[in-house]
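Intended use. Records like the one below are meant for learning the mapping from a protein sequence to its folded structure. Do not use them to infer anything beyond what is encoded.
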Amino acid sequence: MAVNDIQIRAARLSDLDQLAPMLAALWPTSSAQEHAQELRLLLGGKADAVLTMPLTIFVAEASDQTLVGFLEVDLRSHADGCNPSQPVGYIEGWYVAEDYRQRGVGARLIASAEDWARSHRCIEIASDALINNEVSQRAHQALGYEVVDRCVHYRKQLVTQ
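Structure written out for the chain above:
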């Protein structure tokens, strides 16, 4: 399927059954059912119950109505490497089904997120990738994103006495 046959649009509640498994593929610490519960709020007009800033989810839809990717973008009050005096668009999640990768679908999702951020008066958009996710890092850099920081997060389980 040609990338021109892929439509980028805002997610709808009717996308829930296809979208939730993709969210689970990107964020596997939660099940598709758990993602579906949150999506019901986000896509069902009750986003303010879980969010304090605007958020939208874009989907990439093939001509047969199959979803082949998504991108979740919102506003943050600040982001590393960005001007701290104003909100910044932030790519919270970006996923393209394996068969559709490296065909421009991800770039079209990113372009929609950038347009959305501009519509909210942002002059910057930011994102992140896990330090071992070199594929995501290369994809970001290919689309003009630059590394502004690297951080290793630590935790320690505290034993109660």
